[in-house]
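Most newcomers find our protein records easier to grasp once they have seen one. A learned vocabulary of local backbone shapes supplies the integers on the structure line. Here is such a record, shown just as it appears in the course material:
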Amino acid sequence: MVTCICMVACTSKQQQENVSDNLPYTVIPFEKGVENVKQVKLSEIAEKITFVPMETTDASLIARPKLMSMVYVDGKIIIPCTLGVLAFDEKGKYLNTISRKGQGPGEYVQLRFVSTNEELGMLFLQDNLKLLSYRVDGTFVRENKTPTGPCLETLVTQDSITLSALYNSTGRQPYRLLLTDTKGDTLKAFPQYDRFEMPDGWNSLYRNTKEDFLYSYKGEFVFHDYYSDTIYTVMRDTLLPRYLLEMGKYHLPKNLRLEVALTGSQREGEEALKLAQNYLRPTLLENDRFIVMPYTTWSIWDKSLPTELMLYNQRTKECIKVEGGAFVNDMMGTLPFCPDVRIAENVLAEWWEASELMELAEEGVELPESLKNLKEDDNGVLVLVHLKK
């Protein structure tokens, strides 16, 4: 099972260069892609683009949306934010508030992650120590326990088994993934072999707001191990390598991991973050034909460093660094597109605040007609791009 981790992560560079199409996983030449810079038009990868301005009412205000937890299911757009979990239709009309912060039934204390299971017709909200289940229409169904400890994200399988990714906050966390039943009892624990030493023995959670440790695709459940540059398909009893990112010189050394580097002095921490700018941290958005990878450096708090964009074509095997960090919009208006999240199968999404769009319009960016009456204090706009299959 987890011996697959060592097999993939420890494969020599020479072996990786000799990989063939017969491998049971896909090798993505990320390092080479960084040097292969090309302009990519949206029409080359997309079937259509839509702009969805979210209705603004007293009940539907969206503040600081959790971008990686937005989902698009059964014709509804679900947007978690600091004020609650809100549902809108495909045109942005407000439908209802599914949940909000509180102590009552169906309410959460700290919203960590949102996921769906379309086959079950269910929506799941991950709280600190519980998982709240709703029907897609917002009806609260039940509350289940989740694993204790630093749980990052949670998905629910077709047979209501919960898959949880655990954060290795000490460098000695024994497990990386847990499968649990509706009572919270462990059915399978996947060992954590990635160990490292920390001067203080523990550190707080350091993560990028655009990381996605778990996702589902076409009924399969997938785990992204950022430190080993490997993406796994999670089976009931094993982990199967799915994608291997050949990061090369952009792979983060163990001594510069934030959990390790930031336990020293302030000067040492600042130096580590400076060095971390040399290493890259991609998030993988899987689709049928294309793998889209927004990426930043491992200096995650430096807001001056832009998000870049990598594109891997699963048919041609070409890996491209998208020029300018965004796709050229040649389909509707001229607003460039750099996705935040895969919101559904073959559907990418980018969130824009109304004020940001108004500033761009003043600078000459052409917006579609549906956004011409946008006001600064309106809710934001979700740009949806449906990819070619």
User: Anything to note?
Assistant: The first strand starts at residue 26 and ends at 28.
